[in-house]
Amino acid sequence: xxxxxxxxxxxxxxxxxxxxxxxxxxxxxxxxxxxxxxxxxxxxxxxxxxxxxxxxxxxxxxxxxxxxxxxxxxxxxxxxxxxxxxxxxxxxxxxxxxxxxxxxxxxxxxxxxxxxxxxxxxxxxxxxxxxxxxxxxxxxxxxxxxxxxxxxxxxxxxxxxxxxxxxxxxxxxxxxxxxxxxxxxxxxxxxxxxxxxxxxxxxxxxxxxxxxxxxxxxxxxxxxxxxxxxxxxxxxxxxxxxxxxxxxxxxxxxxxxxxxxxxxxxxxxxxxxxxxxxxxxxxxxxxxxxxxxxxxxxxxxxxxx
Length: 305
What we know:
Blueprint (H helix, E strand, L loop, with lengths): L5 H9 L4 E5 L11 E8 L2 H14 L3 E4 L5 E3 L4 E8 L4 E4 L2 E5 L4 H10 L2 E2 L11 H7 L2 E2 L2 E2 L4 E8 L3 E5 L22 E8 L1 E2 L2 H18 L5 E2 L12 H7 L6 E2 L2 E3 L7 E3 L5 H19 L8 E3 L4
Parallel strand pairs: 2-5, 3-5, 4-19
Antiparallel strand pairs: 1-2, 6-7, 7-13, 8-14, 9-10, 11-12, 11-13, 15-18, 16-17, 17-18
């Protein structure tokens, strides 16, 4: 039975701030994707919980959206309700920092440096939000968020507010129980990290150096989703793509970056179909040349994905 009943549509249209047939491309770092049937941008956890609980009760599919990084949205858009989470509060309590799921990791890295805390400098290379980082155990320069995470407050439709320790989240390389496991569909509300006292100015200098190096080696100022493929054990996806001669490979307006082989760039007007075809081409060539199965890191969502 379709979720598109008269009563469900009436409930959705009555939600404060709801938008219908809302374009999503501009809300992703890729700049690609069709519209959401219904779209809400919410900051207050209780408002988000109400929207998710109501969707669950009515059988309405929903998607949680943060900064829209590491995401490829289908050209035909997303069915049901898309909720963009924008709760950005933060609280520093000694060496522990509690942050809202909608706060960007790069912003939090600067906040904790200002508080003379160390151990979070890696986050300056993570373009997404705190919630998204927990969702996929995001990291950079060999360090992941799970290494500093001590507690997550979340919401599970039908079960209410919950507290999770890192072990509860079954972290793996760029995944967790929230992405692939028993907590799929749950919402990260806040995350608490444990850091150490240190020299904030040194932290800022390190982050400046890391950012400069990143800008020199990755196409940061282009429309892209971040790393497209997970690194195979003991190797680098970017190295394999380059060794296969695939830098500059193109499908429509989607192009493998000539700066870094593990990035696909939207040169303007690329479609999700373009990107998918290019991903499949790269995977097939790397497999043919080296016998290695590349696994996409980018999450593909929406109709037909």
